[in-house]
Amino acid sequence: MNDDRIQGLCLEYALGTLEGEDLAELEQLLADGDEDAQAALAEAYETVAAIGLSAEDAAPSPDVRSALLARAGERARVVEMPARPASRGRPAFAWAAAAAGLVCAALLWQQLRTTRDALRSLQARFDDFAGRQEDVAAQNERYRRILDILAAPDTFSVELNAADNARIQAYWNDRQGLVVAGRNIPQPSPGRELQLWVVPRSGAPESVEVFRPDEDGNALILAQPRTTVAEADALAITDEPEGGSAAPTTTPIWAGRP
Amino acid sequence: MTVAAASLLDAHPAAIGYPVGLRFRSAQEPTILMSDSEIALAGRLKRQEAGALGEAYDRYSRPVFAMLLRMTGERPVAEELLQEAFLRLWRKSAAFEPERGALLPWLLTMARNLALDRIRSSSERQRRLEAFHETLPEAGPLNGGDAWPDAKLQAERIRSLLSDLPEEQRKALELAYFEGMSHSEIAAAMERPLGTVKTWLRSGLLRLRERLGAAQ
What is the pTM of this model? Predict the structure, then answer.
């Protein structure tokens, strides 16, 4: 394939418009590790990203920055109180003045300690609050990703079938991830856990998640398998020793083909 | 975007970049160049240093937001996606390889993917497509401040390069980039044959690439 053709394919690939045989041809080159194609693709992303800079100038509201930093958990640190500089006494000071000075210094020192303790307490509370806020943000992010996967037009739906009452449904989008939602899942025996696998058409199964359903038998998994939908033969769940296995050791309890 | 493209971005988030310092990599230039300050910032992000995310935001948020606003047409949505893009930058920065590319194109690509996911899953798309011809901004001078002078100069250059393309090629590129349209969708929107649209896109991209290389 000549350079111009590779560059043309890569440019359309980066733009997201490459389709059909052209797409398959380029993806095969990339999968084969073709260095010319990889270099051309890197350059193509430069070219395509540049189009984004042509948008009319606009500035986000100032609130976005502070909200972002709060979500990222980046915050101003409380500055440690500096050590008190050594005092320089004057030889001519009277004892009374020295005593008064000591009392003042002691009071000041006590005040500094109290202030520092208060700051540390506030810092600890702030850290705790920020940690909880991060937890909530992470949970929101997780649900948002799940919704994105469910709503994406190129998401595949896979039902994992079995003879029992469990209902397990998977939604798989190569770009955005894999959601597996289950109901009425029986609890594994003590010392055992369930393990979700992507079984490729060739090669070893990929472990995606080791999990237990909650006490009501529900499970919700969000993962990003390395295997793509096109490469996958099936999704499967097996019963494995606690912590999971490197490869399935039991027959799948539930399985489904994309 | 295709599966493999997304995988590539995840694996090599910095491999797609051009520098913010007014230089585009030419076809013959093997190494993507970055300014010293950008390399330093990338290193600080990688080490998750306090203040690094804020600095990256101050430096790049404006061009990324402008693109998101153009794509989504709504400030609240664009601001939400802007936050998301920078959060991903922050959370994935450990895998960042400054020697392989710059931050801005990665941010633009990631933010575009987020926006495409949003508009493709939204009924808003039809409304925005119908309004496309009315909302398409003409090339013209920027009206912003100097918060991001390098990117602003780049934007002027890109607009100039795009405006030099034949009108239909430019429109086809904009529909594909900002609206995430496929060949057939562009053909329908522009009421032109599919083969013509494919030729426009390919020719427009190759011309843009050539002119970006020549603009150094």
Answer: 0.52
Q: What is the ipTM of this complex?
A: 0.72
Instruction: Give the count of beta carbons closer than 10 Å to the beta carbon of residue A20.
Output: 8
Average model confidence (pLDDT) across chain A:
81
Residue B17, CA distances (Å) to A197, B198, B201, B208 in order: 35, 25, 21, 16
Place of tokens 């970049």: B17
* Residue A181: strand, helix, or coil: strand
Q: Write down the pLDDT at residue A71.
A: 85
- Please list every residue in chain B whose beta carbon sits closer than 8 Å to the beta carbon of residue A60: 61-62, 65, 75, 78-79, 82
What are the chain B neighbours of A53 within 8 Å (beta carbons)?
A: 63, 67, 108, 151, 154-155, 158
Q: Which residues on A lie below 8 Å from B23 (Cβ)?
A: none
Chain A: closest CA distance from residue B39 (Å): 18
B108 min Cα distance to partner chain A (Å): 6
Alpha carbon of B34: minimum distance to chain A alpha carbons (Å): 13
A199 close to A148: Cβ distance less than 8 angstroms? no
pLDDT digits (tens, 9 = 90+) for A200-251: 988 889 999 999 998 888 899 999 999 999 889 999 999 999 889 988 998 8
Query: Residues 175 to 214 of B: which have CB under 8 A from any A CB?
Result: 176-178, 180-183, 186, 201-202, 205-206, 208-209, 212
Contact A149, A177 (CB under 8 A): yes
Provide the mean pLDDT of chain B.
71
* pLDDT above 80 for B9: no
Angle at A31 between CA A178 and CA B30, to 5 degrees: 115
User: Which position has the token pair 């047409």?
Assistant: B73
Q: Strands of A206-211's sheet, edge to edge? A: A206-211, A192-200, A232-241, A254-256
Tokens of residue B15, six digits? 């491999």
